[in-house]
Amino acid sequence: LADVLGNPASQAWSFFVDSAAPTGQITGPSLTNNKRPTFTGLATDAAPSSGLNAAAFVLRLDGVDVTSEAAFAGADFTWTPPADLSEGPHTLTCSFADNAGNPGGVSKGFETDYTPPSAPVISNVDRNETRVTLSGETEADVVEVLATADDEGEE
Questions:
Q1: How many whole angstroms separate alpha carbon 155 and alpha carbon 145?
Q2: Tell me, what's the pLDDT at 154?
Q3: pTM score, two decimals?
Q4: Cis peptide leading into residue 82 (ω within 30°)
Q5: Contacts of 64 (CB under 8 A, 6+ apart)
């Protein structure tokens, strides 16, 4: 490019092409008996980046939009259900995009379990002078069985 007298002109531009999708993570329990568990999450856009588009954040629980219930601080969020969750499996999904329009998303499956286990079935009691041994069965996911005994010497 030159003017009519032949003086050259130039202009330099620098730019980058953002083709990388943003990434994220959700942290929270995988199995809980809490009816209102808290989850946290974040999204990141690798450098060089166009930055994250805050308006593109959508948070869903089991496919239902719960974005308005979450607290956002930049690319981080915290979410606690405002009502008790139903018992069973759930999926929390966060979708987002950067300012170049590259989509990203992350999800976390978790389960709520509020049902206490059934009482164990005692099938055998062995006694000697210093020890009582109980044998029996309980549900597969029981991790602790507590037994109490009185000291009345009953047979």
A1: 23
A2: 56
A3: 0.74
A4: no
A5: none
Alpha-carbon gap, residue 3 to 94, rounded angstroms: 55
CB 135, CB 124: distance < 8 Å:
yes
Q: Measure the CA–CA gap between 97 and 44, rounded to whole angstroms.
A: 10
> pLDDT-based confidence at 27, cuts 50/70/90?
very high
112 close to 85: Cβ distance less than 8 angstroms: yes
Give the DSSP letter of residue 99: T
- Whole-angstrom distance, CA of residue 47 vs CA of residue 45: 7
SS3 of 52-71? ECHHHCEEEECCEECHHHCE
Rounded to whole angstroms, the Cα distance separating 7 from 138 reads: 92
